[in-house]
Amino acid sequence: MLSEVDALLRGTGRFRTGSGQVPWAMLGLLLFAGGMAYGGCMGSFAGRPLQVIYSAVKVPLLVCVTTAICIPSFFVINSLLGLRADFADACRGVFSSQATMAVTLFAQAPLVLFAYFSTDGYRFAVLVNGAYFAIATAAAQITLNRHYSVLMTRNPSHGIARTAWVVLYVFVAIQCAWVMRPYIGDPSLEVRFFRENAWSNAYVRVAETLWAFLSGRG
After folding, report:
1. Each residue's pLDDT expressed in tens, for the chain with a length of 218 residues
2. pTM of the model
3. For 15-44, what is each residue's pLDDT tens digit?
4. Three-state secondary structure of the chain
């Protein structure tokens, strides 16, 4: 397993762009294993076992649901740009980047536990996890760039497709993350898989909060 992780992070072996059949099973295994391990640690803030289980399930589920929503549009974009022949390699890059994010999160899981042992502040826990997700996202982008640097030598239009994927994925992921909250688990609230009003619109809520602040009501 460690050799597979090393090959994924370095972009070598069967994880190299254009190296033949895409290792879907291994990419899925790394995504679920890393995501569940980090999610479990993430949900352990208040020491509630049910929240640990929920969070362990929701972190990889967030990635999978977001990807499932985005892939059809991504396929259409690639087809319109005349890149359909390279779609498998594009997906290799996308899924490799997501597996990289999960592996990076897994590597930071002990740091999350250390942070939890160091404080009982919920806002601090949110900040810490936000920082670790940012680091994991940056690592994922490095992997995605490595794959797309090869694809863009074949056809520069892949640069447009890559940008479209990032924008589309971020847009959908924000709403999916909002729906699937909580992940850490506020100690003042009961443990639930979905928080009350989970199916509200994240962008509307942000706009309402911003408007209340600007109008002096926040």
Report:
1. 778 888 888 888 888 877 677 788 999 999 999 999 999 999 999 899 999 999 999 999 999 999 999 999 999 999 999 999 999 999 999 999 999 999 999 999 999 999 999 988 888 999 999 999 999 999 999 999 999 999 999 999 999 999 999 999 999 998 999 889 899 988 888 898 888 777 777 777 767 766 765 676 54
2. 0.88
3. 887 767 778 899 999 999 999 999 999 999
4. CHHHHHHHHHCCHHHCCCCCCCCHHHHHHHHHHHHHHHHHHHCCCCCCHHHHHHHHHHHHHHHHHHHHHHHHHHHHHHHHCCCHHHHHHHHHHHHHHHHHHHHHHHHHHHHHHHHHHHCCCHHHHHHHHHHHHHHHHHHHHHHHHHHHHHHHHHCCCHHHHHHHHHHHHHHHHHHHHHHHCCCCCCCCCCCCCCCCCCCCCHHHHHHHHHHHHHCCCC
Among 125, 90, 89, 105, smallest CA distance to 32 is for 105
| CA 17/CA 95 separation, integer angstroms | 12
* Angle 68-72-77 from CA coordinates, rounded to 5°: 135
Give the length of the chain.
Answer: 218
Q: Are 59 and 35 in contact (CB under 8 A)?
A: yes
